[in-house]
Specification:
mainly alpha; about 60% helix; globular
Length: about 110
């Protein structure tokens, strides 16, 4: 499992990439929807507090990550965009969700 320090390091790396807000919002939405499609109550996961992710993997995930449609991502991106988060918030959440998704991928691969 990853730590707060891992999230901080990745968030700084994302910050240095200096992508635009729209691309960053889209990436965050993509990560959120992908996590939600593969984990029970995916939007409620607190990645720095959850020790046993294997129990959160949805029953219909069968050896491969379930990828969201562009429409699903767009809907979440619009919600995020209208909430007007700061750039640092977006980068932090991208880092957090990216690390969480990597953990979910490992679990799916190891249990297929």
């Amino acid at each position: 499992m990853f730590t707060k320090e891992d999230v901080t390091k990745l968030a700084f790396k994302i910050y240095k990439e200096n992508k635009g807000v729209e691309k960053s919002v889209w990436r965050l939405a993509e990560l959120c929807v992908t996590i939600n499609n593969n984990a029970k109550d995916g939007y409620d996961i607190k990645p720095l507090e959850t020790d046993n992710l294997i129990l959160l993997i949805r029953d219909d995930v069968n050896g491969q990550l379930i990828h969201p449609s562009e429409d699903e991502i767009r809907k979440v991106a619009e919600i995020i965009y209208h909430e007007n988060p700061s750039r640092s918030q977006i980068e932090w959440y991208i880092a957090e969700k990216q690390l969480l998704l990597e953990e979910i991928k490992k679990i799916i691969e190891n249990n297929s």
